[in-house]
Amino acid sequence: MSGIFRVPKPQNEPAKAYAPDSKEKKSLLKVYEELYSQIIEVPQYIGGEKIFSGEKIEIRPPHNHQHIVGIYHKGTLKDVDRAIVSALTARKEWAALAWEQRASIFLKAADLAAGKYRDMLNASTMIGQSKNVFQAEVDSACELIDFLRFNTYFMTQIYSEQPLFSEGVLNRSEYRPLEGFTYAVTPFNFTSISMNLAASMALMGNVVIWKPSHTQVYSAKVIMDLWEEAGLPKGVINMILTDSAETSQKIFAHPDFAGVHFTGSTRVFQSFWSEIGSNIQKYKTYPRIVGETGGKDFILAHPSAEPDALATGLVRGAFEYQGQKCSAASRAYIPVSLWNTVMQKMKDMISEFQIGTPADTSNFINAVIDKKAFDKIKGYIERAEASQEAEIIIGGQCNDSTGYFIYPTVILAKNPHYESMIEEIFGPVLSVYVYEDEKWEEMFELIDTSTEYSLTGSVFAQDRYAIAQATEALKNASGNFYINDKPTGAVVGQQPFGGARASGTNDKAGSAQNLLRWTSVRSIKETLVPSTDYKYPFLG
Ligand code: NAD
After folding, report:
1. pLDDT for res 321
2. Residue-wise DSSP of 273-331
3. Mutation choice for ligand 1 from 210, 213, 261, CB with most ligand atoms inside 8 A
4. I want to staple 466 with a disulfide (CB 3.0 to 4.6 A). Which of 191, 193, 350, 461 is the partner?
């Protein structure tokens, strides 16, 4: 086949509204009900085979932990070995396949996700990860589809990036897949991220072992079915359901390990880095290490901020998907002149929130992911109740009798270094520090230095000098910075996402920068008419 091929220029997938009585809402809720009344089985997918190990682990919706919706078959270290062998076997053909053939598979997967699979992806995310209709739609439909379409386009941009020539010389850059196999370790909170971490590496010609979070297995199965239907060859993405720590140890000790794509908590990523470092002499090639990790994302309000926009940014930013977004607003700095107005507006909004199952679409808030998360978040709330340095001014109720429900909670911190102002809680808890208006400039250093993270942050102000000042002073305090908007909701292709410091390697998911990490360039020089005499002119 000869030709300089291109792929369509992508556009963001529009989010459906799911308005009452809409066709899309009826269709989605029908699939939800069907799935909710079944017990599905989730195998491991290794080398195109479905492996039913027989060691069954129950899958229960976080909003109804007495109800079983499925079981998954847990694997062992033998399955990790099998996955490595099948990935390396698949590599021979996959790495050699022309890029436009790869592109077709991922673009087909995007169209399937936008059509036939949309309800399945959304319903499985609503059931397994307790997301409301809208949160599921923007994640497991729109963002997932965007990752597939935009990354395919970015891949072609990378491939088109070619070097200069000099007289009589032809130069080429060849973008090769990494030598060996890659490893994707993914979080529970975004179906799109869990798909993308494996897909972005596979798109660039790599073979992948994917270990999803045990609390995202339900939608992970839908993704594997999607790959099968899109025609992804056997063994290119292998999904294993094994013990996290043991699996990582095994993989990081393998000489063909070529890279890890991680999203999850900071400490887990740091443990990966140490383990890889201690094995460095074993590898055939230096592994690529890419991780997007925790955050303690801020909202800074200037006295000129517009109170309604600020209050809306605070409640949406902090409480959507129960605050379980790495980008969720979890600390806010509000001037005393605005505080009473903003607090009252937040109280009014939050008092309207309904909490419960995603099946009832009037619920804005659903459950947190599991008992471990529930206990951790509850611990922060109980300690705040007992502390002299903090006061709970909104919410604080926790109830795990049916599901893991935590009421949106606002803590007023008297000390800006109080634990809930500086540690990642990963739940519906917003901590607020109220400052004297004239101390506006002092807030910059406080925000910049009081946590180890640097993921997202917002400034709310109407005064343009204040906006410019905050944008400059907080340059390194976040990887994604927002002006008069909540710090969540990055859109693929519009706000490439990622943070630095303890928040990650800032390789910007859903961008060409990220894809560059999964390719290894060979520079090829061809001299058209080679010299035939070794002597240079200076030799006289
Ligand atoms: P997690 O760290 O508990 O789990 C992430 C993955 O790591 C899972 O697949 C898990 O099984 C695996 N894992 C856990 N412990 C491990 C160990 N000891 N060894 C090997 N693997 C291990 O994170 P989570 O609860 O799934 O997700 C929440 C975290 O992810 C938060 O810290 C959040 O900020 C972060 N996150 C970051 C981004 C981002 O883009 N920066 C996006 C989403 C989530």
Report:
1. 98
2. HHHHHHTGGG-SSPPEEEEE----EEEEE-TTS-HHHHHHHHHHHHHGGGG-STT-EEE
3. 213
4. 461
Q: Identify the DSSP state of 136.
A: H
* Residue at 238 is within a domain: yes
Domain annotation covers residue 532: no
Domain count, the chain: 2
Measured in angstroms, how far is the CA atom of residue 428 from the centroid of ligand 1? 18
Q: How far apart are CA 57 and CA 73, in angstroms?
A: 6
**φ/ψ of residue 195, rounded to 5:** -65, -45
Residue 414 pLDDT more than 90? yes
Q: What is the mean pLDDT of the chain?
A: 98
Would you say residue 391 lies in a domain?
yes
Do 445 and 382 fall within a single domain? Answer: yes
Question: Which structural domain range is residue 392 located in?
Answer: 297-483
Considering the domain architecture, whether residues 228 and 347 belong to the same structural domain is answered as: no
User: Computed from CA positions of residues 329, 451, 495, 187, in that sequence, does the dihedral angle turn out positive or negative?
Assistant: negative
Cα 183 to ligand 1 centroid, rounded to whole Å = 14
- Give a yes or no: residue 436 inside a domain: yes
Long-range contacts, 437-442 (Cβ 8 Å, 24+):
437/303, 437/335, 437/336, 437/337, 440/302, 440/303, 440/335, 440/466, 441/469, 441/473
Residue 408 CA to ligand 1 center (angstroms) comes to 23
Give ligand 1 pocket residues (Cβ under 6 A).
185-190, 193, 211-213, 244-245, 248, 263-265, 268, 271, 292-295, 326, 424, 426, 455, 497, 499, 503-504
Query: Are 358 and 458 part of one and the same domain?
Result: yes
What is the average pLDDT across 102-116? 98
Averaged over 128-143, what is the pLDDT?
Answer: 98
Q: For position 321, which CATH number holds? A: 3.40.309.10
Q: pLDDT tens across 525-534, in order?
A: 999 999 999 9
Residue 116 and residue 235 in one domain? yes
Active site residues: 292, 326
Asked if 519 and 158 count as a contact pair (C-beta separation under 8 A), the reply is yes
357 φ/ψ angles, rounded to the nearest 5 degrees: -70, 145
Please tell me the pTM assigned to this model. Answer: 0.98
Q: Determine the residue of 74, 147, 189, 296 to mutate for testing ligand 1's pocket, defined as the one with the most ligand atoms within 8 A of the Cβ atom.
A: 189
Ligand 1: distance of its center to the CA of 169 in Å? 48
